[in-house]
Amino acid sequence: MSHTTTVEHVTVIATESLSKRFPRVTALDRLSVDIAPGVTGLVGANGAGKSTLIKILLGLSPASEGRASVLGLDVAKDGSAIRESVGYMPEHDCLPPDVSATEFVVHMARMSGLPPSAARERTADTLRHVGLYEERYRPMGGYSTGMKQRVKLAQALVHDPRLVLLDEPTNGLDPVGRDEMLGLIRRVHTDFGISVLVTSHLLGELERTCDHVVVIDGGKLLRSSSTSDFTQATASLAVEVTDTADHPDGTTALRTALDRAGLTVQPAGRGADGAPGSDHVLLVDVAGEETYDTVRDTIADLGLGLVRMEQRRHRIAEIFRSDDDDAAAANAATDAAANAAADAAAADAAANAAADADAHGKGGAVDAA
Question: Terminal CA-to-CA distance of the chain, rounded, Å?
Fold first, then answer.
């Protein structure tokens, strides 16, 4: 698969106050974002507005308000020209079961304007690129989910686009298939210079694949940053050691020794590091260059094996988990304050009722006398 077209130093997608309203829901709410060449992830929960945005960018659905451009073309006026230069991989299964991958991709290439001989040549190259060359003549009804996703990717690439829009390309794939698809997506840009906008509701996928991440929720922009900004290094050292006969729990032994050395140490835990086995990882606050020497010497003195010692980086999911935690804490504090006020009011009411009852009792006794 050859590719010579590249997009450099331009904005491939731009939206300005873009809104899309339906009778009962607002799918996009004044969304303004610029997307540069490269691999960009568009992340949001199901129903966040990702698929709606893609349909507007392709000129298939009109916006209710605002403007958008793709490769410098106005989505409201130049939909046909945009679709000539953009590939699209839909989320849902849409492949005819009784047609081979070759027949289908050739058909899509012809619909994109390629002459017959070029369409066949490009189809062969593209199916080879996505790993379906050996299976290209089989009816697609017998394909696995992963193979069908590869066919959808191939038809998005066959007409040599400058930009591809991939809607949930890892949907329904097992972990191995997901990793292979993410590798293919990355190669679309690194090997062929095609810019990519890929949607997902899984932050970890985008962290490994994308240069830039755009986060939307309820049709609104939450954040648009480079992946490196999301995952910037922290002032913590992640340390993992092996167990030994002298120290059956090497992690605990190291933590105790580092505490004695005056370092601040805490277990990473699965939620913090995010990887299997991270409950054996310690996070050490870095006070200076001497911290590295102290950790290294302590491990050597204990006779432990060092698995890793590296400056820890944030994971994208932690950014939003911490935001959620802050919001939850604020809500909890608000609820607690409201409950306390309600309890105080109830106590006051009870005290007043008791006082009234006491007063009435005394008045009745005076009257009886």
Answer: 110
